[in-house]
Amino acid sequence: MNAAAAENPVLPAGSLDGKRVLITGSSRGIGADTAGYLAAAGAKVIINYRNKEARALKVVGAIEDAGGSAVAIGADLTDPDSVADMFEGVPTEWGGLDILVLNASGGMESGMGEDYALRLNRDAQVNVLEAALPRGVRHEPPGALRQHRRHDARV
After folding, report:
1. What domains does the chain contain, in order, with CATH numbers?
2. How far separated are the first and last CA of the chain, in Å rounded?
């Protein structure tokens, strides 16, 4: 997490207080940066990773060092049992999730099968969302966050 996150005009500090977020594929890159921004805005963040636990724990450490709350949960999003375990791993004291960010993508890894890119980038995204909905995560249509921000800007 960087200093810019604390000065973010789109997600000011405290704007996500009490929100609970799971971000798939957030052990590095855009997912890790997103986690830092959401945590700086007050959200409790779950860092999801497939096999890069050390990277995920580094992101958790950076969020905690900045005063935020985060945990890392590993899951292979192409495996329904692993996805179910991921949702079961949400800290009990958090009481559920408010926001799901589907960031995981890929498919170029060797040894994962010919159809792995399709299973991860299409099928797994739908399956993760379907697994999240019964757990209290609301579905927002594309653009809803932008509309919400515009509304907040007028208040």
Report:
1. 3-154 (3.40.50.720)
2. 29
